Amino acid sequence: MVGDRLAGMLISPLASARRRVAGALLVLTSLTACAAGPGARLAPATDAAALPPAVIAALQRARLPQDALAAVVVPVEGRAAPRLMHQADQALNPASVMKLVTTYAALDLLGPAFTWDTPVYLDTTPVAGRLRGNVYIQGRGDPKLVVERLWLLMRRLRALGIDAIDGDIVLDRSAFALPAHDAADFDGEPWRPYNAAPDALLLNYKAVAMGFTPDTAAGVAHVRYEPPLARLQLPTSVPLAPAGTACGDWRMGLQAELTHAERIAFQGAYPAACGAREWSVAPSDPSGYAARAVEGMWRELGGRLAGRVRDGQVPAGLQPAYSNPSPPLAEVVRDINKYSNNVMTQQLLLTLGLQKAGQGSFDAARGVLAQWWQERLGPTDQPVVDNGAGLSRAARLSPRALARMLQQAWASPVMPEFVASLPIVGVDGTLRRRPALVSGAAHLKSGSLRDVTALAGYVLAASGQRYVLVAMVNHPNAGAARPALDALIAWSAAD
Predict the structure, then answer these.
(1) Domain assignment present for 7
(2) Fewest CB atoms less than 10 Å from the CB: which of 225, 226, 260, 327?
(3) Which has the closest alpha carbon to 367: 377, 376, 357?
(4) 75 contacts 466 by C-beta, under 8 angstroms
(5) How far is the C-alpha of 185 from the C-alpha of 197, rounded, in Å?
(6) Nearest C-alpha neighbor of 287 from the set 357, 170, 202
(7) Residue numbers of the domain that contains 394
């Protein structure tokens, strides 16, 4: 744009020569700095440090100082100088935007078609519908072993002709080596599914979906639970609130008791005005969730169990009776980024450790990620990934480093799968309710925590130029920064 304006100006031959030299140097610097490969860096842009006026105005309305925001806007190809470089080297908490690092690394290292297997073993042959031995289910980190796929897994067991198991169902969760986890540690809300811990045999994200359907004739709302959980007291109905009660904060009105390991209870009522609603919660016994879900599904399918469901390991030399493959990694990454699923992201990070270092631990996984970053982007500006999901107070990443990674991702063979995984502003995912300022032309991942608001991804401008956009706000009033980030998106798209 600057070149277009200069082309129409009358200047002296000497000035013209000087400008041609300066322009050539600028292009050479930009190309050198932004070329793909280890150690590549974005071109310095001291002239691009000033924030757009609309962004400044929005920050002022939110009572946020300009230095609360760090931002980068740069062409995806890296062939021109950045449009914006504002505090680009600040190492900040990116919240869920960190998922971009984990998911791109996974696509690059494992490939979009990578799948997880969950094999099932029998230690004896069933006779006349009875298995006089044990069933073993081996978890290998599948992030998407949800209710429907758990049903298929157990249905295949029934299809082998097994009606009754005289022994135990043994859950092998040894593929991951995980530290102790307290779901209340992060924010004191352990019933939130986003606080669930990873697990080699992760079933339905360790959550139970409670469906409420009002029945005005009976004066109750019927309650269903998915998946069925064995040995857990679950009420099948809850009283309706008085007629005319507005829906409002219906979850609060239920007065759910979610802290007891053996039951879920409701002390309140459900407003009929809400119609049918669903609420997902994490039961208070996460370590026992898998056993309850497996037993509950087995019994719902008509299977009998004389023993119990317990943890253990598959005996050496035993061959699987069948295996349950996951959806491909590209689909898993799409779910992660579109809906910002924390526990799926942690499963993915641990899988990198398991597949590339032979150990399903966070330390091994972080080592794999650090080596990958060095090979792809050089030894500097390494992110502090913590659990890889951004659900962390320790995670750190600079806008410049993330922008470099996004440029590299755009030039990579997995670009279609990676970009397709990002929410489209105003269309889907976590940004479906965001104003469609650029008519669906912005693919961005959002992130938010207490004191953190962030956005990163790609914006297609009116000129046809596509930009990498990264913006992070770390400030006690970060939640008020959303209009400023929306203004930054609109400014980027208006080129």
Answers:
(1) no
(2) 260
(3) 357
(4) yes
(5) 11
(6) 202
(7) 42-113+329-493
